[in-house]
Automatic annotation (TrEMBL):
<protein>
    <submittedName>
        <fullName>Sterol desaturase family protein</fullName>
        <ecNumber>1.-.-.-</ecNumber>
    </submittedName>
</protein>
<keyword id="KW-0560">Oxidoreductase</keyword>
<dbReference type="GO" id="GO:0005506">
    <property type="term" value="F:iron ion binding"/>
</dbReference>
<dbReference type="Pfam" id="PF04116">
    <property type="entry name" value="FA_hydroxylase"/>
</dbReference>
<keyword id="KW-1133">Transmembrane helix</keyword>
<dbReference type="GO" id="GO:0016020">
    <property type="term" value="C:membrane"/>
</dbReference>
<dbReference type="GO" id="GO:0016491">
    <property type="term" value="F:oxidoreductase activity"/>
</dbReference>
<feature type="transmembrane region" description="Helical">
    <location>
        <begin position="21"/>
        <end position="47"/>
    </location>
</feature>
<keyword id="KW-0812">Transmembrane</keyword>
<feature type="transmembrane region" description="Helical">
    <location>
        <begin position="100"/>
        <end position="123"/>
    </location>
</feature>
<feature type="transmembrane region" description="Helical">
    <location>
        <begin position="68"/>
        <end position="88"/>
    </location>
</feature>
<keyword id="KW-0472">Membrane</keyword>
<dbReference type="InterPro" id="IPR050307">
    <property type="entry name" value="Sterol_Desaturase_Related"/>
</dbReference>
<dbReference type="GO" id="GO:0008610">
    <property type="term" value="P:lipid biosynthetic process"/>
</dbReference>
<feature type="domain" description="Fatty acid hydroxylase">
    <location>
        <begin position="111"/>
        <end position="241"/>
    </location>
</feature>
<dbReference type="InterPro" id="IPR006694">
    <property type="entry name" value="Fatty_acid_hydroxylase"/>
</dbReference>
Length: 275
């Protein structure tokens, strides 16, 4: 175990080869699986305890566990792109990372998170364009997403989306521990966005704050044509693609006490199956 981690660590230093890269790749896969299982279990327990927080009250995801058969491919691509980025940086092929200081950590983290949100928004808009939609259609089979829907995607969608983590080391001199922290956040927030239950509604999830609550991506699945971004709502606000009842729904969930007091069923005309 220790040798495995040491070999993976050697992939971050110049002169590493295939063995070190494979050890790093395997370590990233194992970490994603552990993070996914812990996050998934957390939401399964929270959802069971708080039925009043369910967002789409009249819909159930009939294929909840079946969606997981796409998880190995999705996780494999995520791990390949991410370990590829770390390896490229370690070998000196990318920008030389900044030393870890009190300012370099928040600065590179903020820059990378903001860039990823822009990447995700525009790529996602592109995936909704007819010629490319076939790569994204699988993900939209989950009209009522669950925490496991995060990995319900085609390999092409996963490659397009996750190549960000390979390319970012060529754009920002981000220290590798910062990139690891961002990826952990990304894995957890991706699952949170699909949880189907709004547990963390707060004024920070609605205007004038830019943060996106679980309702945000749930409405993307439920209504199809709104809320394309990842962590923030500003791209959708700017481009006029924010769901008109997003802020109102988050606000309602801040004080929800009974099922149906927070959720709103989409009118038939706004449902994806009628698009
Ligand atoms: Zn979509
Ligand atoms: Zn989704």
């Amino acid at each position: 175990m220790l040798t495995w981690i040491e070999t993976a660590g050697a992939a971050l230093r110049p002169g590493a080869g295939w063995t070190e890269f494979l050890a790093l790749f395997a370590l990233v896969v194992a970490s994603i699986v552990v993070i996914g299982l812990v996050t998934g279990a957390f939401f399964e327990i929270m959802n069971a305890r708080h039925p009043e927080r369910r967002i789409q009250i009249h819909r159930t995801n009939e294929n909840k566990w079946g969606e997981l058969k796409y998880a190995p491919g999705s996780i494999g691509v995520i791990a390949l792109c991410f370990s590829g980025g770390l390896f490229a940086q370690g070998q000196g092929w990318a920008l030389t990372p900044l030393p870890i200081t009190w300012w370099s950590v928040p600065l590179t983290l903020a820059a990378s998170v903001l860039l990823y949100d822009a990447w995700f928004y525009w790529l996602h808009r592109l995936l909704h364009w007819k010629p490319l939609y076939r790569f994204h259609a699988l993900h939209h089979k989950s009209v009522a997403p669950t925490v496991w829907t995060n990995h319900h995607e085609t390999l092409v969608e996963a490659i397009l989306n996750q190549s960000f983590y390979f390319l970012i080391v060529f754009v920002i001199p981000i220290p590798w521990p910062v990139l690891v922290a961002e990826k952990i956040y990304d894995q957890i927030s991706g699952m949170l966005g699909h949880a189907g239950y709004e547990h963390f509604a707060s004024p920070m999830g609605r205007t004038p704050w830019p943060f996106a609550s679980t309702v945000f991506h749930d409405q993307h699945h439920g209504y199809f044509r709104y809320n394309y971004a990842h962590s923030f709502s500003f791209w959708d606000r700017l481009m006029g693609t924010l769901h008109p009842r997003y802020d109102e729904t988050v606000k309602r969930f801040e004080t929800v006490t009974t099922p149906a007091s927070g959720a709103v069923e989409p009118p038939a005309s706004e449902r994806p199956e009628t698009r």
